[in-house]
Amino acid sequence: MIRRLFNVERIYHDELQRQQAMVIISFVVISTVSYFVYAIFFTSTQYAPDSLLGYVLRTGRFGDLTLMVFFILFAILSLYFVRIAKLNIASWTAFIALCFLTIGNTYNSGLFNGFNTMVMMMTILVAGLLLGIKGLYLGFIVTIAGIILALSLRPYILAYPDYIVSGELLAQNNLTDFFAISLSALAVTALVY
Q1: Which among 52, 88, 115, 159 is most buried, taking Cβ atoms within 10 Å?
Q2: Model-level pTM?
Q3: How far apart are CA 138 and CA 99, in angstroms?
Q4: DSSP secondary structure of 127-150
Q5: Once rounded to an integer, what is the mean pLDDT over residues 47-76?
């Protein structure tokens, strides 16, 4: 099954198209498997003492589950479009899957640590790989929008009693964090360009 998934020689006769198909397949498979392992098995300070899935089931915050479902749906659609030789559509659906992952990350985190910020920066890199220069610009825009969303949600983190970082403390650093993370996003965009 895995060999069949990665076998694109029968579908694409052009070497560049084969490489693009492999990038899409690799991104979708690696991100989906990584996300499942993280969501099911790993606890973090953000969801302590649960994993993401355990936290969703314990608290009933099904918005997180909805984002997971949309991520999986678009990841599967992307693989489907690769298999029927629609690389452009496959690239866009893989990018949309990544956006759901990014939105889920910012929705939950308030960007309180480096890992959450790194996921935001990956949006730029992967969008550039999947969609070229227009994807790079779009990835930058999505990243800035994600940063603004995360920082605007910081005051509401107080609503989660088991959250390890004080929402008030995070909210005091919004402007500084916005400029620092935005400059990092700009640097990553310039580097990928």
Answers
A1: 52
A2: 0.77
A3: 11
A4: HHHHHHHHHHHHHHHHHHHHHHHH
A5: 79
